Amino acid sequence: MAQLDADIHHRLRAFDLELTLAVGDETLALVGPSGAGKSTFLRAVAGLERPQRGRVALDGEAWLDTERGVDLPPERRSVGLVFQEYALFPHLTVRQNVAFGLTQGLFNPRRGEASAAVDRWLDTLEVRSLADRYPDQLSGGQRQRTALARALAAEPRALLLDEPFAALDASLRVRLRDQLRELQSRLGLPIVLITHDEADVAAFADDVVRMADGRAVADLGVPDREQNMKTSARNQLSGKVSVVASGTVNDEIELTLTAGQKIVAVVTRQSATSLGLVAGADAFALVKASSVLLATDLGGARLSARNQLRGTVTRLQPGAVNAEVLIDVGGGQTLAAIVTQESARSLGLAPGASVLALFKASSVILGVPR
Do 268 and 251 contact (CB within 8 A), yes or no? Predict the structure, then answer.
C-alpha cells in the first residue's frame, strides 16, 4: 500500500499555511472556502512551489526535505496532477498532450504515434474523437478531460486533483469517479482531491480534511466541536469476530459490535489469515459514508445488502446539495451516512428518528488494532 506523507509550512500573504497529511490507498478530500490554502498545499506537494519548511515523501522516499536540502523537481516526483487551469501545451494535439507524460527524453510525442495507454484514457475520458485537435479548439470540459487523461496515462504513484470534475456533465462525472476508484484499487494510489461539491465528497472521498486560513479545522460553521459531525467520510465500528466461514478464495467474517448488532464482511483468505481474524479476536470495520443507505421501513422487501444496522438519528447536518446524518447504533458507536436533501425530507430524518442503515458486505473493510 502506498503512503503519501506531507508536512507543509509556508508563509502566505494573508496567513501561514500549516498542514500535515498522511494518505494511504484512499481518496482524501480537501474542502473549505476559496483562499484557504488548498491549492498552494497541492502545489507544494507536486514540487511547483517550495515552502519555507516542510517534508514530502512517498513510501519513505523523500521528495522534499528542507532540513536535508532535498527538493526533487516535479518530473521526478511520480505524481499526476490536474489543476483548474489545465496547463495543456497549446502547440500539441490532444493525443500528444496525453502522451506527453509517457515520453522519455527531450522530444515531444509524435503527432500520429500509437499507444495503448494513451488510447485507453482517450476512450475513458471520451476525447478519442478530439485526438487531433489543439487545446484552443476545445471547450472547457474537453480541456479538463484531456488534462485528466494526461495525468492518468502514466499511472502515477500519487494523484493530486484540484476541482477535477467542475466542468463535466453529471453522467460523465459519475463514470469518471468509477474509473478513478478502479485505478486507485488496482494501483493502491493515494489521491488528494480539492472540491467544493459535496456530491464529490459523498461519492468519492474516504476521508475529509476541512481547511480555513491555512489550517485543518473542525467542520466549518459549527462552533461547538463536541457537538460536531464526524469530519471523516469513512466510518469505523469496533467489535469482536464471532463467526469465520472459510471458503476456497474468500472468508466471510462476522463482527459483533459492542451493543450486539452484527456486521458481515468478505475478505480474501490471505487477508483473514494475515490479520488473525479468528473467533474472539478484536477487529474494526471501515465503511464509507457514501456506501450507507438509509430506510425507515423495509416492509417485506428483500435486499442484496447483507448489513442492516438499527439506530437513532442524533444529528442532521444539511449542506448545499446533500445532508450528513449521524446515527447512534448502540454501545457508544455512531455511523455517518450521506443522503440527498430530498431523501432526508422524504424519510423524515430528524434527531430521534429510528432508521435502518444498509450496506453491502463487499463495501466493508476489516482491520485489527495495533
Answer: yes
Strand-pairing partners, residue 356, are 295, 310
Dihedral angle at the C-alpha atoms of 337, 341, 344, 348, nearest 10 degrees? Answer: 160
What are the extents of the domains in the chain? 4-226, 234-367
Q: Give per-residue pLDDT as tens, 218-248.
A: 544 333 333 333 334 567 899 999 988 888 7
CA-CA distance, 359 to 244, in Å (whole number)?
Answer: 20
> CATH number of 4-226: 2.60.120.620, 3.40.50.720, 3.30.70.2190, 3.40.50.300?
3.40.50.300
Residue 41, H or E segment: helix 38-46
Distance, CA of 37 to chain centre: 19
Reported as a single tens digit per residue, the pLDDT across 95-129 is: 999 888 676 544 566 666 667 888 888 888 889 99
Q: Which three cell numbers stand for residue 196?
A: 467544493
What are 143's three cell numbers?
Answer: 480541456
Give the fold, CATH level 3, of 234-367: OB fold (Dihydrolipoamide Acetyltransferase, E2P) (2.40.50)
> What is the Cα–Cα distance from 289 to 302, expressed in whole angstroms?
22
Nearest to 269 by CA among 245, 288, 290: 245
Determine the average pLDDT of the residues in 147-160.
87
Query: Is the pLDDT assigned to residue 140 strictly greater than 50?
Result: yes
Are 194 and 161 in contact by the 8 Å Cβ rule? The answer is yes
